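Throughout our pipeline, every protein is held as a single compact record rather than as scattered files. Such a record has a labelled line for the sequence and another for the backbone structure tokens. This encoding replaces a full spatial description with a residue-level series of whole-number codes. For reference, a complete record is included directly beneath this paragraph.
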Amino acid sequence: MSNKPVPFPFPARLRKPAPLLLAAGAALLVGRAVRRRASGARPRAGSATRPPVPGQSAVRPLTLLVTAHERLADGVVLLRLEGTGLPRWEPGAHLDLVLPSGLVRQYSLCGDPEDTSSYTVAARLVEDGRGGSRELHEQVQEGTELEVRGPRNRFPLVEAPAYAFVAGGIGITPLLPMLRALPEGANWRLLYGGRTRASMPFLEEVGKLDPEGGRVTVVAEDEDGRPEPGAFLADLPEGAAVYCCGPEGLMAAVAEHLPEGAALHLERFAPRTTADGDGEFEVELRRSGRTLTVPGDSSVLAAVRAELPNTPYSCEQGWCGTCQQKVLEGEIDHRDELLTDSERGDSMLICVSRCRGTRLVLDM
């Protein structure tokens, strides 16, 4: 199956592009693919190259004005952030929002990729979270200026003979632009689950994408129980692309029922974990001349900041890249969702990633 981004990055109003435009788009994508292969990095549309050294991301931040802050569903708000000459993006991309407190949180773009005057995101309130979503819901309002980094894309839409999309609640946000971008006649289906219909954002728009019915299955847990991906995925053709965004349990169920020959693409709400457990290991800070012990129930970041309190960090979930550090020795257990293959060779995000052995040496 081809792993090229789908050559239909157009809004819904442009679903019938002329043959000349299609040819030009295909040529552009081929050029992009060649450049990506030459660089050795994974295709990640809309992202900027970041050096594998300590410090902030090299992506230049933007300051945008919040011009809409609206209730979209129970526990979900929609934000529109306006500016001028904003970078275009492709379906699956996300933004880093720097909140007034300094917290950095990541939200999938769910508006029109061709709109260079505004970005649209939606955020669910996480009652037992670490405060970022509550700040976004309760303190950010129309007229607030926010620093924005991105767009970045670690969840690109690829070309495939058929598509199956599985969304859990707010997980619909990265999938919605993909659904809009598919060409007429594409073979696609969507399974969209949530706690209640009132809590499911964009439910009305999702219905409009399937006016004749048969493609979209909506499952509200208070009415129908949990979604069952097994039957939904059962008869997918060879080479189908399966996209899933939602809670870890839903993604695990999709992976368990993935048909042979289908390719699975996941967007996580939280960093990956491993089945091997978290053992204790040592970290040498080469430039500081210190050696630390990282317990199994702590992070490299926590251990390092106990010695070097000015070490930069932000999201603590492996999304933003602020804590990226160069690794001089040792085998890295990467658990982030951000770094490219080339960056993973000699750097790590110390907020979530660990050591596969007993010792790491960092250039700190």
In short: The first strand starts at residue 62 and ends at 73. Confidence is low (pLDDT under 50) at residues 7-58.
